[in-house]
Specification:
The complex is a heterodimer.
Chain A (H helix, E strand, L loop, with lengths): L3 H29 L10 H13 L8 H17 L1 H12 L6 H4 L1 H29 L4 H4 L6 H32 L20 H4 L4 H25 L7 H10 L13 H11 L26 H9 L5 H5 L1 H4 L6 H22 L9 H5 L2 H5 L6 H5 L6 H14 L6 H13 L12 H7 L1
Chain B lengths: L5 H6 L6 E4 L1 H6 L1 H17 L3 E2 L10 H6 L2 H17 L4 E4 L2 H10 L8 E4 H10 L15 E4 L13 H8 L4 E3 L29 H10 L5 E4 L2 H13 L7 E4 H8 L2
Parallel strand pairs in B: 1-2, 1-3, 3-4, 5-6, 5-7, 7-8
Helix pairs in contact in B: 3-11, 7-8, 9-10
The chains are: A mainly alpha, B alpha/beta.
């Protein structure tokens, strides 16, 4: 009988870790279903990005107030989870406040700071809920988030508030039980903690058995909540708390203005310009797709981007096309890419290899109208706190539209033919290119 | 004032210090031609030995590449690289951020390696070196100027300071728009948008940006890109402010105020 809670705890922990790893493996497969792109150069700069962009959340500080609140929630949540180590060990060993005796005063100091952070997380998560649902900050209230994404965001904030409340209530009931010298609570007398003691008036009237029940209930629900939260991540935009780190490491180091080259076209152009270079033997490997039509044509980094997106909408709020009412929203580019990558991943797992489902990222998820609204201004890339590059996806889809589908607005076709025939995007006589210089001669 | 071409220089057995890559807007667009002339005049007055490619210059392929036509871009790049390498060009300056970006970042992968300088940086260096001297009583003294960041100069290549330093030489009052520097708002021309109608929406991007500039009540909106210049000029006309507000390139401002 004595060991039932311990066995229960160990089973819960194992189930939770196994379930999470299985889902994490699926996400990894979904990402690696993308095209290969070797990224490993300049490790120094990459570590720097991990430190500054992921750990330091540098880009968040463009808006300092929000950045500080977000930082407290993030740091608070991470640091408080050190307490989970004790909770886990207590759970496995059937002990209570295992670290108190060996750590002594340091332990008290630690728990007090955890409580401080817990209150911070609680207040700021409440403010975040207000910003989303009452103040209705534009990028958080946008129709981009209609349906699941909006609920997802709210669930996370509410869960964090509940977890923090459980932690504080647990400490409050524990310390009352200590002062009453009840059972093993009386053996680890930590004394009152800074913040949970404010809850004492609410609990003082309760009997010992109700308090023990409350303390245990909070303990179990807290740890259950944490396991649930872990397993919720793979289904949620909140995965960014993990993927922001690798995504910062793999972030593009090139200047933002640099568009990736297409070596496969280079070969074609070379043969077109110098046919004598075409190898005598026909080594054609069949037609390679130019640009990207579906998620497997995108690079795995594009897909890692999609899974790292937490749908904050800073990209869309900075997008000139979106600001002026066009259909394009860089955030939706990322959300739709992830939606499609999930479907493609499931398809591959079910059928061993991808079986055509009659759909593709281009057209069925992202329309030409969205792609054509982009000015390639890089505002979305600059705005993203977790190093996501929506523009790279837009460019690859545009390449497919033009080179595989010859799908361009008439004005662009005119521009192309002008460049080809008049060597400038305008239908003007190429001989007049230096007219301005001749005018200066006089 | 004679603007020599590379062909002339090569025929005379000479080579320039720097090639002035004019770009299509600077060559053909009537408004942008004035920027080209102003910059060429500055180079001449400062005594820099430069040349243009003249009729041998072609589109660098940027609008084609951004629209998705990689094939056409690479054809243009192939031809341009043949000509540039044929003349042994090592260094060039351009007044167009799109030309600057593509030569600096994208031609190297195709075998075109050049030191490329945008005219904002070039002008700043000339001012810093004391080669450009400004009038004692500048024509822009007391004028209010706001600078519009070009995306392909700013975010794309992190050149935010140079154009502002150039404007500081004018002795005018510089005011910043709320969306400036890395937060600068696009004029709406990039990504080949210049060459087609806007997608359906409720406003044109250039109007959104022009309104932001006009809200500061500037005398001059300064740009460092011929496409931004066109978009903002159109915006100012659309708001019927062309009599109060001028849209000028940093080269035009400097040229008018040189001692």
């Amino acid at each position: 009988m004595l060991y039932i809670p311990q066995v229960l705890f160990i089973l819960l922990a194992l189930a939770s870790i196994l379930f999470f790893s299985s889902n994490a493996r699926k996400i990894r497969q979904n990402i690696l279903a993308g095209r290969d792109e070797p990224i490993h150069n300049e490790k120094g700069k990459r570590w720097r990005n991990v430190l500054l962009l992921a750990f330091g959340q540098k880009k968040m500080f463009k808006n300092p107030l929000v950045a500080v609140m977000h930082f407290v929630v993030y740091a608070g949540f991470v640091i408080i989870n050190i307490e989970v180590l004790e909770i886990a060990l207590d759970g496995v060993l059937g002990t209570h406040r295992l670290f108190f005796k060996p750590l002594g005063n340091v332990y008290l100091w630690l728990i007090n700071s955890f409580e401080f952070l817990a209150v911070g997380v609680l207040i700021f998560c409440a403010i975040f809920l207000l910003r989303r649902n009452v103040i209705k900050v534009k990028r958080l209230w946008s129709k981009d988030l209609d349906g699941w994404p909006r609920s997802d965001a709210n669930y996370i904030l509410i869960t964090e508030i509940i977890l923090m409340s459980l932690f504080l209530t647990m400490n409050a009931s524990d310390t009352i039980l200590q002062s009453r010298g009840v059972g093993h609570y009386g053996e680890a007398v930590t004394g009152n903690f800074l913040f949970s003691s404010f809850l004492h008036p609410l609990l003082d009237g309760m009997s010992n058995s109700s308090l023990i029940f409350t303390e245990r209930f909070c303990w179990w629900l807290h740890i259950f909540g944490i396991f649930a939260f872990l397993n919720y991540l793979p289904y949620s935009k909140h995965l960014h708390i993990l993927l922001a780190f690798p995504n910062a490491w793999y972030a593009r180091l090139d200047p933002q203005g640099k568009m990736n080259n297409m070596p496969e076209i280079q070969q074609e152009v070379l043969y077109a310009m110098q046919p004598e270079l075409i190898p005598a033997e026909n080594t054609e490997e069949g037609h390679k797709k130019f640009g990207a039509k579906d998620t497997m044509d995108l690079s795995w980094k594009n897909l890692l981007d999609a899974y790292s997106c937490t749908e904050c909408g800073r990209c869309t709020a900075a997008c000139p096309a979106n600001l002026t009412g066009k259909l394009l929203s860089p955030r939706m580019i990322m959300m739709k890419t992830r939606d499609r990558a999930e479907i493609v991943g499931k398809n591959i797992r079910t059928n061993k290899t991808f079986i055509d489902d009659g759909k593709s990222l281009l057209h069925d998820f992202i329309t030409p109208e969205e792609l054509r609204a982009c000015t390639s201004c890089n505002a979305c890339v600059e705005a993203c706190p977790v190093s996501i590059n929506p523009l790279d996806i837009i460019f690859q889809l545009r390449r497919y539209l033009i080179m595989e589908e010859s799908n361009a607005p008439a004005e662009w076709n005119n521009m192309f033919s002008s460049i080809e025939n008049n060597f400038s995007p305008w239908k003007l006589p190429p001989d007049e290119r230096d007219k301005w210089a001749l005018e200066m001669d006089t | 004032m004679h603007i020599p071409t590379m062909a002339e220089m090569a025929a005379a057995g000479e080579s320039p210090e720097i090639l002035f890559w004019v770009g299509c807007a600077g060559s053909f667009d009537q408004r942008a031609q004035k920027i080209t002339k102003a910059f060429a005049a500055i180079l001449t007055r400062v005594g820099i030995k430069f040349a243009i490619l003249g009729k041998e210059e072609s589109c660098n392929g940027d609008p084609a590449r951004r629209a998705g036509n990689e094939f056409l871009f690479q054809m243009m790049a192939y031809n341009n690289i043949q000509i540039l390498n044929g003349y042994g060009i090592k260094k060039m300056v351009t007044a167009c951020p799109h030309c600057f970006n593509i030569f600096k970042n994208e031609y190297p992968a195709l075998g075109g390696n050049y030191e490329v300088i945008h005219h904002a940086v070039f002008l700043q260096q000339l001012i810093d070196d004391g080669k450009i001297k400004m009038k004692e009583e500048g024509v822009f003294k007391g004028k209010k100027i706001t600078y519009h960041d070009s995306c392909y100069l700013g975010r794309a290549n992190h050149i935010y300071e140079a154009p502002r330093k150039v404007l500081q030489a004018l002795d005018a009052a510089l005011v910043e728009m709320k969306r400036c520097g890395s937060n600068g708002l696009c004029c709406g021309a990039g990504g080949a948008q210049m060459f087609k109608e806007d997608e359906p929406g409720n406003e044109r991007i250039n109007i959104e940006r022009t309104d932001e500039a006009l809200s500061l009540h500037p005398d001059i909106v300064a740009a460092a890109c011929p496409f931004c210049n066109t978009m903002l000029t159109d915006g100012v006309k659309n708001r019927e402010k062309e009599n109060e507000v001028q849209v000028l390139d940093i080269a035009e401002l400097i040229e008018r105020d040189m001692a």
